[in-house]
Write a structure and sequence with these properties.
Length: 640
Amino acid sequence: MGFHQNASDGVSQRVNSPRFSGPMTRRAHSFKRGNAGGNSHSNGGGKGTGGFDPHYEIDVHLNSPRSEICGSPVSGDGFDGILERKQTQQVNQRFHGGVVKNQSKKHIGSAVLDLGLRERKKLGHWMFFLFCGVCLFLGVLKICATGWFGSAIDRIGSNQDFSYPDNTHLNEMDKSSHDYGYREEGNDVERTLMMVASGVVNSQKSMAENSDIWSKPNSENFTQCIDQPRIHKKLDSRTNGYILINANGGLNQMRFGVLQICDMVAIAKVMKATLVLPSLDHTSYWADDSDFKDLFDWQHFIEALKDVVHIVETLPPDYAGIEPFTKTPISWSKVSYYKTEIVPLLKQYKVIYFTHTDSRLANNGLPPTIQKLRCRVNYQALKYSTLIEELGNTLVSRMREGGNRYIALHLRYEKDMLSFTGCSHNLTAEEDEELRTMRYEVSHWKEKEINGTERRLLGGCPLTPRETSLLLKGLGFPSSTRIYLVAGEAYGNGSMQYLMNDYPNIFSHSTLSTEEELRPFKDHQNRLAGLDYVVALQSDVFLYTFDGNMAKAVQGHRRFENFKKTINPDKMNFVKLVDDLDAGKITWKKFSSKVKKLHKDRVGAPYLREPGEFPKLEESFYANPLPGCICETTTTMAKR
């Protein structure tokens, strides 16, 4: 993506410049010629009676041969010199000619003209001195009222939000340490809640409220369309068998497990099978023992889908003793695969266990009824438990205290993510080696040797906390912006310091909740992830720094909920701008301008999801359920 800048930012100095050397003109009142036959006027003035007429003016060019002294340039004294020479000539005529009466008649017009010019000059001087005096008086009054240093500090503070920090501030990030866990302490939590309730935090919000940084994209021609038709085929009471699944995923991947459940419900529908209430993976990196019933309203889940697909809490007693047939479905499969290859196995063995459930259904090329069913499961049937929903809504209320808006920031800078992606920009050599060691210890991570620098330049790394801060500032979010952190503990010594210095109003579930409120969530990372999901979904702006499973789920849900603003960073081009800024190749003003242009069309506006050459490279159906679950009310749709 190219950027076109104006080659000239300056303003021509020729116009209205004191250094402009072109011909200058002064205007003076003319007088009527008393003698119709007079052709010109000499140093002595015009001939004849010469009365003044205000309706006529003449232009007197200082360097013109028609000036008072014909053919000679005006000296530095200008009109004053001319007037002085005129007066001298008049005096000489009085003493030497002796005809004062006749000469006074000839020079009366010129004398009056002389008097007018001198008086005007004096009046101009007095007006200039008066203007300067008034300005000086107002300046002194301003200093006495507010103080010179106070007003200077105010000006600095007003520009602080959009200024680029100096090198000392940049180096401070590497020198200082920040333990994100300190936010767990009771005193800090109570103090934060008091500040939120009293409206102390983020009271200076006028700049953010009056700009378009919070505005959502235009989506007036789009609406949800997942309701079941009034006339539809009744669900057959017979079943081809039972499907067992184990949705895998940990913190920030828990919702990915939910998406797997959505696919499995759709597959059960295709196979005319009965789905047993899913179980969740307890062997992930986060080792959470929460089960489906701990996270979701399981009774609502079954009830909401009872007319579409059979779902049971457990296997019936008649099937409990049957050894399930183990099967790994092919990734991104179409409906025909399950009908022709899996249904015969199900009919034969009656109970089948799917070992893998991630991405086992294609994004595109499915019947509309199946696509709509996936969304009905995701956005209507799967509701979080009352415990999660209630506390989540409470945190949303606290973030909005005093009518504030907030950003939900999905900062994927946890240790496991950095190790998996091989990204270690701005980390120490020791931290980089620790991430590499972890990558080799996790056996199911296929990729071991990774060039983190190259991956970052290709946009494959999560944004660092510092890069995230620069992105927010470049987009125009002031330092008073409220941010809800949707993430685990950031990895790296002092990695969060830069972001927290620039945006001190950062909150999380641990800072907004009391110890008592969080007690049921202790050591249950999946429940905390559900809590973060509720707050992120309702935020005014959602910003994610890595396109992971949680980010896909949240942005797709926000599209479904009337296209709430979601910022999708162009990481590849953005990190290049950051590097140019750090190298001094571009100014902060140009950096900010380019960041805004880069993300102008990356705010979650409607566009059609299109099939790709390879299913793995396609946009996820759950990240953009258009088409499928969102319909356009007009006949045309603009492509992305």
